[in-house]
Amino acid sequence: MPLASAGIIHAGTPTYQLLQRKIHVNGNLADWAGIKPNVVADAHHLWFGQGMVRKNWKGTADLSYQWRGAYFGNKLYFLFEVNDDKVIEGGQAFSYLCDCIEIYLDYGNRGGPRVKIMDGRKDWLAKCDPRELMGYEMHFLPTNPPRVYLDHRDKYAEDKPQTGEYRKRWKGEVVTKRTATGYIMEMGFSPPHLTLTPGMTVGIETGVCDNDGRGRKSIMIWTGTKKDFWLTMDDYGKVTLERPGAR
């Protein structure tokens, strides 16, 4: 999509405002009081394909979630509260086949392809050139300790997390706690290539994958798009950073 088209909000595109608030990433939800959640709980949020079909989903106790966001300085913060009746500690070949949270970030609010192939190869996973990344795809596994995956350098192999790089290069923090109905995950990070400015808008998609022990059986995503959201950023939600004094 040309840059001239960036920022267009189409009918049905979800929008959200990130409040300016310092969050302590420690699993204490008190920091999030008064921040509106985005509830992702209905069947229309299910994504189908790659073996996932409607009948795999058994209702909101099987898989549903809500997420909230905030920002402070140059750091984005997220809180996910996930309903999952069977939380599994990894165990699949790739991170996205496990119980996990996915955050997609169109940091330039461009839309279009998330990976812009520069050498004409047909297999975009064959290598990961940082210059090709127009947006980020991040996976967070609710393991003990949590594992983070930043890009497809290792094709999201579950045994090759990038948690160390996340903590160092992204100034990343993440905690997870089990709950009676699933788990929570709280994270904060400063994405490369992005300087946060009050009033700016970025594209964001969120998703949660469900693995009950035999591989991924469901994904629920915020926007409810049925397109290949990990490849194309056109349908991401539009998230605006609160301006000081806006409230």
What name does CATH use for the topology? Answer: Immunoglobulin-like
Query: Into which percentage range does the β-strand content fall?
Result: 25-35%
Total domain units:
1
Q: According to CATH, what is the class? A: Mainly Beta
- In sequence order, what are the helices and strands, one letter per element? EEEEEEEHEEEEE
Descriptive overview:
The protein is built from 1 helix and 12 strands, in the order E-E-E-E-E-E-E-H-E-E-E-E-E. The chain has a single domain, classed as Immunoglobulin-like (Sandwich), CATH 2.60.40. It is mainly beta and 247 residues long. The N terminus is likely disordered. Strands 1, 2, 3, 4, 5, 6, 7, 8, 9, 10, 11 and 12 form a 12-stranded mixed β-sheet that branches.
Nutshell version of this structure?
Helices cover 3% and strands 32% of the residues. With 247 residues, it is an all-beta fold. Strands 1, 2, 3, 4, 5, 6, 7, 8, 9, 10, 11 and 12 form a 12-stranded mixed beta sheet that branches.
